[in-house]
Amino acid sequence: MEIKFYNSLTNKVEVFHPIKENEVSIYVCGPTVYNDPHIGNIRPVVLFDTLRKFLETVGYKVSYVSNFTDVDDKIINKALNENISEKELTDHYIDEYYKVLDAFNVERATLNPRVSEYMNQIIAYINKLVETGSAYVNDREVFFDVLKDKDYGCLSKIDKEDLINGKRIEVNDKKKSPLDFLLWKNTKVGIKWDSPWGAGRPGWHTECCVMIHSIFNGLIDIHGGGSDLKFPHHENEIAQAEAYENNKLANYWIHNAMMDINGDKMSKSLGNVILAKDAIKEYGANLTRLLLLNAPYRSIINFSDETLKNNQAIIDKILAMNKQVSLLFNLNNIPFKGEASKLNPFLEALSNDINIPNGITYLLELIKEINLELRKKDKNIELIKADYYTVLKILYILGIKIEPRLLNENERELYKSYLKSKEDKDFIKSDELRKKLIELNIL
């Protein structure tokens, strides 16, 4: 199967060719763990979880890494305010993050490295950049020399002069050029490590380069994250990788767009930030995850009453079909697991630049076909089985958790009694039994 991705580095849809045959290496920038994630933070999580499950389904062995930034000024300041250690704070929010991921049916990464665990490698990496002249030391701090990188801006397509003239950069008198960015920060407050330049901690942009280099030993297939990371974070990652090992860190850069809330950009200043755990509580994990996936990933999602309603309708169709098929399978002793023999159209949709909306359209076609067959007196059981097993596989890839309803012997007898009372036209009894079946979530 030919797979295509839109590569943010080249701004083109390209055929995917992995570095190693039948293997895929993926790195996705993870959270800075000083508070609970909001639903915008979760969009790349569910997108790349779905991509991973798709790639595994078509036969690739996937090494999937997503980091935790557990060293940052925001972490230090919050830990000081709460009078706890940075590790206590980050451990708490990492635990909370995993709870959210579990609720969203996200498969655990191959590895979730913490920045604090890679400090020796980070210091060695920065030291090599200094030795080769790509970085310089000033007053116990280390900066990357951007002007020595002729290809700077290759990802974000931002011109160096435009950056300077537009003042999109932090002013720092220690820099040779205002474009230069911090690799090692001299700090007197909070957690710090000894280095050749003095006690301090790393800048944000180096950690991912080092972990990719350490874990994957260089170039990877796919680097992912939100579009807000293109500049400066991912741009600065590429600059360091080019200086350190003469590559652009990844062959394919995949970025998802941001999220609006009722037509407005989600931001703390507007007070419209929705925490992921609150979305799960209010809307359910299945609905929230489906909403985050059911739009072109490079387009902004609008989290609104309308999109909630539209995606809830899809969830309702899945649940209603699942109940009916569960009854049929229970009463006829049909196994709930089998070959997803009609999966190919869904896989073809996702192979075309992760076109999940088209994949969901196919899912709904299968559900419609199942429902039509269920209404027939002489049902084509083999057709229903093929469709249903395929639906279950699609839902697995999408991360939508729907379990078949398994009936015990008493529940089976109750349902048979209901059918008999209907057949006998004993409407009072059938109504009573129907009410019980609804209460048991069988009907």
Describe this structure in words.
The longest helix has 27 residues, at 305-331. The protein has a 4-stranded parallel β-sheet, covered by helices on one side. It has a 4-stranded antiparallel β-sheet with strand order 5-6-7-8. Helix 1 (39-57) links the parallel strand 3 and strand 4 (61-66). Helix 4 (119-131) packs across helix 6 (204-216). Helices cover 48% and strands 13% of the residues. The chain is built from 15 helices and 13 strands. With 443 residues, it is of the alpha/beta class.
CA radius of gyration is 26 Å
Q: Which secondary-structure class do the elements indicate? A: alpha/beta
What number is the mean pLDDT? 95
Q: Biggest β-sheet, characterized?
A: 4 strands, parallel
Q: What is the string of helix and strand elements?
A: EEEHEHHHEEHEEHEHEEEHHEHHHHHH
The neighbouring-strand order within the major sheet is 4-3-9-10
Distance between the termini: 40 Å
Helix content: 40-55%
What's the total number of strands? 13
Number of discrete helical segments = 15
> Quick one: overall form?
elongated
* Poorly predicted sequence stretches spanning 5 or more consecutive residues: none
Residues in β-strands, percent? 5-15%
